[in-house]
Fold:
Amino acid sequence: MLTKFVNYCKESYNELAHKTTWPTMKQLTSQAVLVLYASLIIAVVVFAMDKVFESIMKVIYTL
Structure:
C-alpha cells in the first residue's frame, strides 16, 4: 500500500517536472486579462438583469 503511494508521488512529480509544458508569463498575463474582462462583462449583465427585474417587480407591486 505504501509503495503504491510512493510510486504515485514519484510518477506525478516526473510528469509535472518533465512532461508538462507550462505557459509563459505573456500567455498567463493575456489569459488573466481575458478572464478579468469576461468577469466584468458577466457582472455588468447580471447587474442589468437585476435592475430590469427590480423595475418589473416595482411596477407589479404598485398595481
Q: What stands out?
A: The helical segments are 2-19, 25-62. The mean pLDDT is 95. The chain is about 90% helix and 0% strand.
